């Protein structure tokens, strides 16, 4: 999720929170991999998730939509090392 998150960041997550477009969330891909991804849009297949770094990682374009029940939690805050809310890098474009 760089540039938004970096390896080692500590996050406060909320389980069972209704996910919204643009949220950063913990998701489980169909193969069982759990990752932190941005929720881009929702359709009949579930949530399409994206990555903030276009050259690394995986997203729905490579792994397909994530089922509604596979959105495990939404990220509320970064606790450490730079406490605060997460920004959307696309918002600055």
From TrEMBL:
Any Pfam family from its record, for instance, is Peptidase_S24
* Protein name per its UniProtKB record: Peptidase S24-like
Range of residues in the leader sequence: none
The record's section on SUPFAM superfamilies has: LexA/Signal peptidase
Domain called Peptidase S24/S26A/S26B/S26C: residue spans = 1-54
Q: Which residues form a coiled coil?
A: none
Organism, by scientific name, is Nocardioides scoriae
What InterPro entries has UniProt attached to this entry? LexA-like, LexA/Signal_pep-like_sf, Peptidase_S24_S26A/B/C
């Amino acid at each position: 999720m760089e540039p938004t998150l970096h390896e080692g960041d500590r996050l406060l997550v909320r389980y069972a929170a209704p996910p919204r477009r643009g949220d950063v969330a913990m998701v489980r891909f169909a193969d069982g991999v759990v990752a932190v991804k941005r929720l881009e849009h929702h359709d009949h297949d579930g949530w399409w998730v994206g990555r903030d770094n276009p050259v690394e990682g995986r997203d729905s374009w490579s792994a397909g939509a994530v089922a509604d029940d596979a959105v495990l939690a939404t990220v509320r805050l970064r606790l450490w090392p730079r406490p605060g809310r997460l920004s959307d890098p696309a918002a600055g474009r």
